Amino acid sequence: MKRQILITGIILISTGLLVADGNIKGEAVKERNARMKWWSEARFGMFVHWGLYSIPAGQWGERKWTRGGVEWIQQRAGVPAEIYEKELVPKFKPKADFAKEWAQIAKSAGCRYLVFTTKHHEGFALHDSKLTTFDAKDACGRDLYKEIVDATKAEGLKVGAYHSIIDWHHPHAYAGFGLPTVKGAINEGRENSIYIDYLHGQVKEIMSSYGPIDIVWWDYSSKQCQGERWRAKELIAMVRKYQPQIVMNNRLYRSPEAGWPDKHDWLEGFSIGLQYGDFCTPEQKIPANGVQGVFWETCMTMNTSWGYNQHDHKWKSTSQLIQNLIDIVSKGGNYLLNIGPKADGSIPKESIERMEAIGKWMNINGEAIYGTTVSPYGKPKWGRYTKKPTKLYAHIFNWPQTAKLSVPIANLKVSKAYLLADKEQRALPMQHTETDLIISLPTEAPDSIASIVVIEHKKYPVEQGAEGDAVNCAP
Ligand code: GLC
To answer: How far apart are CA 87 and CA 64, in angstroms?
Structure first.
């Protein structure tokens, strides 16, 4: 009997049917995948970094920053919390209806969700917090998170809350444990547990006052803050009590056993291992081969800053952004693309242009992005693949000069190939060789950034392993 239990246990663990301990205690992979379904099909989301830091926008006095996250300006310029607050709060005057503009831009770009910074490291709460006067309600008489949640839901998008664990404003937030802090902040007289109560309290406000919240995006627990520093398990349990279906990232908690990968910086560290939370978060990078066995999401800026920076003109091209999206999806991940609105809530024109161009592309090609997964055919020289059970999508970045596309799927029963941009879906001529399917293309690419050929085929033969290659599934 004992032996049988042991064997069953081994099978369950090795097939990933049980998830050990933590926030998802007792939740089977099947249930978790069901909870994660909308998220893993969505593939594309919009991140929004906006707070008091959007006012200085990369410049404090004479000092200017042209690169990197200027939502860190308080820390970068070493501004004490009282001065930061006194200087910026009176200037914070968001325009009416900014949230609708954000939600509309996200929707028309083809994003399926929006994640907003309810509080960044500066500590300013964008929701109406009863626990502090350092919040939007006290600064400008509005609950800005409510405006954002309502506008986002009105567009039919899922909505998330990014919430910072780091807090440079709260007098009891401990300055230390390896967390970056504002210069000169000392720990003497600080009672960290008071801050932790406050952190829990604000998260409770967010989770219990705005109806369904779909994602919680913690940021971030560092190397020295493993374990229960934030009373992480309790916090997670509380979030799940109010939002049982919520999807959670992995930046709140690292168990001491998880250690920290020596050879990786902290950004990469987020892409490795998933002790708690549902998905991991490679930042500003696309892992070469995706992240095997877990849900993952690459978050990325359009220039080099998360918060608005008037001095950062290093914008990525639309072509880069679209090809990034495809690259990520072809490896089983999601793309969370950031905008940093100006202080009044308006979106920089460079971001609008890019989001609109992505939207134009998604209108035609979204079918090859949403609900697709990794294909078993790797990374071809000419672009990427995504797939659905009976369709293979060839995303062509470099249109072949020969106007012939070779696809190594001799063993698939293909019924038809056509251009996704062709509304009539006219069949492209095909030829089989021993190893490849050769598709004849028109001489001109329908889209200079990425054109898609749809290859319709019979279901993958199971023995090929293609149906089992759920790289984006939970461990
Ligand atoms: C980092 C930065 C932060 C940014 C975040 C986005 O943790 O501290 O400024 O919000 O990454 O992933």
So the answer is: 17
